Amino acid sequence: MEQKDRRRNVLIVIWCAVLVLSCCAQMQAKTKAWQGAITIPTYGWSEDVNPKFWALEDRIRLSTTVKGAIVYPYSMQDHLYREKEDRTYKALFLENEYLKVTCLPELGGRLHSVLDKTTGEETFHLNNVIKPGMIAMRGAFISGGVEWNAGPQVHTVTILSPVDALVGTNKDGSAYLEVSNLEKTLRTRWTVRVTLHPGRAYLDEQIRIFNPVDAVNPYYFWNCTAFPAKSGTRFIYPMTLGTDHHGREFFNWPIHEGKDLSWLKNYETWASIFSVDCAFDFFGAYDVDDDRGIVQVADHYELSGKKAWTWGTWDFGLVSQKNLTDDDGPYIEVQSGPLPTQSDYGMLLPRQEVAWREWWYPVHGLGDGFEFATKDIAVQTSRRDGQLELHMLATGRFARATCTVSQDGTELLTERLDLSPEKVRLIAVSPAPQGPAEVTVKTRQGDTLAHFTTPLPIPEVTPPPRSKVLDKPDAELTLEERLLRGRKYDLATDRKKAREYYEKALAQDSGYAPALVGLAVLDVEAGLYAEAVSRLERALERDPDDGTAWYFLGIAHLKRHDASAALRCARQAARYAVSASLAFDLAGRAHAALGQKRMALDAFEKAVSLNPNDGKARDHWLLALYAAGETGAAFNEARQVSAAFPTDLVPRAIRALQGDKDMDRFVKEARAFVGEHDFQMIETSLLFADVGLVREAERVLSAVCIEAVPESQRSPLPLYYLAYYASLAGDSAAAREHLNQASRIVRDYVFPSRPEAVEVLRYAIRENPSDACAHLHLGSLYAHLGRVEEAAPQWQRAVDLDPSLSVAHRNLGLYARAEEDDLPKAERAYRRAIAARPKDQTLYRDLAEILLEQDRRPEAIALLESTPADKLRRAEIIILLAQLYCDERQYDEAIDLLESTPYFVNWEGQTITWDLFHKAHMARGRIRFDDGDFTGALRHFEAALTYPDNIGVGRSNKPQEATAQYWRGRALQALGRLEQARSAWKLGAAGPAGSSEQDASRELCHAALKETE
Question: Regarding the domain delimited by 869-1011, which CATH topology (the fold level of the hierarchy) does it fall under?
Answer without folding.
Answer: 1.25.40
